[in-house]
Amino acid sequence: MRNLTRIALAVSLSALFASVAAARDAGARAPDSAGAATNNAAVAPRFEATLAQQFDTSAPIKAGETVDVTFQITHPAGATVSFPTAYSPERWVLIGAERLPTAEGERATKSEWLAKFGIYRPGMTTLDSFEITVSTPDGQTVLLPTEPVEVKVLSIFADATSEPEFIEPRPPVPVWVEDYTLAFVGGGALAFALLGLVAWGVRRRQLMVPPPPPPPRAAHEIAIEKLGALAADDLVERGEYMLYWVRLSEAIREYLGRSYGFPGTEFTTTEMLVILERVEWPVGLGLDDIHRFLRRCDEVKFGGAEPNVEESTATLRRAFSFVELTKPRLAPAVALPTAGGLGDGDTEVEEEGVATIADSAEAKPRWAPPAEPSDPQEEE
Fold it and tell me: What is the CB-side half-sphere exposure of residue 250 using CA atoms within 13 A?
């Protein structure tokens, strides 16, 4: 029994303490509610704003032209007006919104705004209602809904009102086409390259093969050239007889060797005379003349003989005569008939005369030096 009494007493005390705590909490919240009511009473009431819009729907517009909508808004002084950035449907695009000049009052302001919309697709279209925001400097805002705007947009093409007609179906386009243009171009380029390579090879081979040597010069041309160079030199005037006679002897020996097929500059005079005995000499020239010429050259070169200017010059003229008398002869020339000359069928053959050593002074070749008054060796 005592335990039950204790439990009942504890429950009673707990209920008493709970009621006291609740009373305290209610008393603490009463002043806060009163303050909140006082603050709500101090908040200023919301401002009033009105909206009126104007739009001319009498005439349609063409795609690309602007749709002008005028909005007249009444709001407190100092408030700002803002338009949204996106519109429905998407074909309506806000190009710009500008405020028109209007009179302002002290408490309320009536502002007029011109909004320009661009539409670039033809057809009937309706600008859905959107909200224009009016804000005051203290942070209060009012949303003013607009009225829908319906407009007809015409196409910029002249025949846009007519019914569209479908063109005739086109034939199927082949996906794979055999084109040999590249093969032809490549083949032609390869052919040209091969031709160029062949031409280059032939040209290179031609350049690598040395040209044939020129034909050998005639023996009498070389001899006359050497004798002429000796005649133009001044060895005799300077007293260099040895060199003069050596060059003179070598020119004639080389000429005789080239003409009759033996090394004239390597053979002795005796060896040369043995070979020259078989030569058929022209009229006015014999083997004895060649013998005397070579012996005299040997006497000057090896025997110490001292020739003079007259003998040296005469011997050079004799050498020219040797070459002129023994050089190859051309075929006889046939002279053409002249006016007052031969008759029809007559021909005149000019035979080339043969000069002798005795006549060489008068009919000497053009390379010989001038004739001297006397020839000591011929007088002997």
Answer: 10
Residue found under tokens 């040369």: 272
Does the model's pTM come out above 0.85? no
- What's the chain's Rg over C-alpha atoms? 71
- The rounded distance, in Å, linking the Cα atoms of 200 and 194 is 10
Q: Give the chain's count of helices (H) and strands (E).
A: 8, 12
Instruction: Decide which of 67 and 331 is more confident.
Output: 67
- CA 162 to mean position of chain CA atoms: 57
Classify strands 149-154 and 61-62 as parallel, antiparallel or unpaired.
parallel
Separation CA 166–CA 131 (nearest Å): 44
d(CA 31, CA 106): 40
Q: Which residue's structure tokens are 């005995």?
A: 277
Within 8 A by CB and 6+ apart from 84, the residues are 130, 131, 132, 133
Q: Measured at the alpha carbon of residue 315, what is the angle toward residues 313 and 293, in degrees to the nearest 5?
A: 165
3-state helix, strand, coil in the chain (%, to 5): 40, 20, 45
Contact 358, 317 (CB under 8 A): no
Dist. CA 266–CA 250, nearest whole Å: 10
- DSSP state at residue 50: E
Of 141 and 209, the structure prediction assigns the larger pLDDT to: 141
Cβ 94 vs Cβ 83: under 8 Å: yes
Tokens of 169: 């179906």
Closest CA to 315 of 267, 246, 255, 256: 246
Each residue's pLDDT tens digit, 79-123: 888 898 888 888 888 888 888 876 555 456 788 888 888 888 888
pLDDT at 249 exceeding the cut of 90: yes
Tell me phi and psi for residue 331, to 5 degrees.
-65, 150
| Cβ neighbours for 177, distance < 8 A, ≥ 6 positions apart | none
